[in-house]
């Protein structure tokens, strides 16, 4: 059995999803209510703070998008549970491979990591909006089970002022699966359409000091990674040279003709790397 055969086939490739949920939204409204991200922010009890703006953006997506992404999520979750069970059995028996044509522990662990990545990417890029809406609706539907979710939202969400989404209701199809034949494809903005700027359809990004600090830790930009690496290297160089017995020797000759510009020039080069990288 190959590694690829352990990873379930899904309808939508998570890697192709546009990132429509900005970090500040995920950090403040979504991650606190999903234990997948308890390593980023503590999980909170109770219903999430859903509002009219989130509902308006939620309704810009075709309802079948949520069905397909949710189905893929369930498929991956089921497969993950099965693989973890097999992994646990091998570890319990202290074996590196299953009997006969079974798979190795290394392949099981690689498949588990791949599926976990699919789940997190899918959730963080788009599905999280739907999942948190379900969490918000769950207690309401128990009390008012005869009403649909759109009716409940109209009844419970307070009015608020916000900038309306650019997209028309139910017009966005940001997934790799084909639009069903019963949908009006001419009225859909699809993933494979040329020239679509998906960033304009993303939900609003309202960063705060806390969310930015967390973002820089967990999802830094490429420039920030380089900047942090430079600072780490510079700090490490300074600590190493301060403890190096050769440093006093270099500094003791700093007035000589050969070394007069060496230390200042090298230190200046370290500091100039930031604007050059940016």
From TrEMBL:
Lineage: Eukaryota, Fungi, Dikarya, Basidiomycota, Pucciniomycotina
Source organism, top-level taxon: Eukaryota
This protein's name: Proteophosphoglycan ppg4
């Amino acid at each position: 059995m190959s590694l690829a055969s352990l990873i379930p086939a899904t309808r939508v490739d998570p890697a192709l999803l546009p990132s429509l949920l900005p970090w500040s939204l995920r950090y403040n409204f979504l991650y606190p209510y999903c234990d997948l991200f308890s390593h980023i922010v503590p999980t909170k009890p109770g219903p999430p703070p859903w509002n009219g703006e989130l509902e308006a953006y939620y309704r810009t997506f075709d309802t079948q998008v949520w069905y397909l992404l949710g189905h893929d999520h369930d498929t991956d979750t089921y497969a993950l549970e099965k693989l973890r069970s097999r992994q646990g059995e091998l570890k319990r028996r202290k074996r590196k491979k299953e009997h006969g044509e079974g798979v190795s522990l290394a392949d099981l662990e690689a498949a588990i990591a791949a599926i976990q990545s699919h789940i997190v990417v899918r959730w963080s890029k788009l599905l999280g909006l739907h999942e948190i809406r379900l969490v918000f609706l769950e207690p309401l539907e128990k009390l008012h089970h005869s009403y649909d979710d759109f009716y409940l939202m109209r009844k419970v969400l307070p009015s608020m002022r916000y900038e309306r989404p650019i997209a028309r209701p139910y017009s966005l199809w940001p997934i790799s699966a084909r639009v069903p034949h019963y949908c009006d494809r001419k009225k859909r903005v699809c993933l494979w359409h040329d020239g679509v700027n998906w960033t304009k359809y993303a939900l609003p990004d309202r960063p705060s000091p806390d969310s930015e600090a967390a973002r820089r830790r967990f999802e830094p930009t490429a420039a920030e990674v380089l900047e942090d690496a430079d600072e780490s290297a510079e700090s490490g160089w300074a600590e190493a040279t301060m403890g190096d017995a050769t440093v006093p020797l270099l500094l003791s000759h700093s007035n000589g003709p050969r070394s007069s510009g060496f230390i200042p020039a090298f230190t200046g080069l370290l500091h100039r790397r930031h604007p050059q990288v940016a």
